[in-house]
């Protein structure tokens, strides 16, 4: 294939502001078909991109012209749509969290292996330049032994950017299952495992709904995490940040500290133990503000993995499962008031 012909299922804000523009920008992808349960949305987007409109995802998947499917529907549809697409012989890029349970995630991975097609999960933070540089610095030993970390993702909530506002599926437990943890926290569990290049093995957390009276999912969570080698740190996910979005991460090592996406001018700052400081302007991280949308790297990576058979991809389904296991463990910890040890098979599958 020289061109990847793509169908997009779910035409909310993520598809409109990320996936569709990135598909249009990529010279090797074509928006062939789109699908949404709201007919007017499907027809509007189809007309804009000269694509075929569907209202039933099964019909889109059966379209013989389509090589790949992007799943950007509500969380509860991630597994069934992805599995159906894989069984139909399509490559799949699924939004995060990849599923609502580990059983669903395992079914998705099994379908992927049986199909021989690719299943990737849209974790975009590993493509952020500052995060990629930090990973290399850690791997090269520039910080020495890593002791701890702190990672945060918080903003005012999906109603500020979702196409359905306060009526969005994000706040409905039957459709979302997970709130801020699934929307934001899973990005950070994936990021920490990417930066440190090892899985998270233990989780303790407090999770609550504090800011959204119309939500029956979590809107604030703080978790303490321990990695396989014993590095400890915190992960915060929140829909209650009423000022600026916070999408920052700090890595603490024996030779210095890396501060990521914390300084508005420098996306990566290194503070060394001897007092030296290194500032790096590597471009702003993606946010949900319309004026900062450019290219998350997810669609480009998906197209490259399919068309070029690029096997070096940090957003595999196994990595997505590992990130999901962490946030589900956080929910479990909050409910049981216990430290949750991830099952050995969950950790190993994330490696």
UniProtKB/TrEMBL annotation:
Gene3D superfamilies: Dihydrodipicolinate Reductase, domain 2 (3.30.360.10), NAD(P)-binding Rossmann-like Domain (3.40.50.720). The keyword Oxidoreductase applies. Keywords: Oxidoreductase. Residues 4-122 form the Gfo/Idh/MocA-like oxidoreductase N-terminal domain. Residues 131-259 form the GFO/IDH/MocA-like oxidoreductase domain. This is Dehydrogenase.
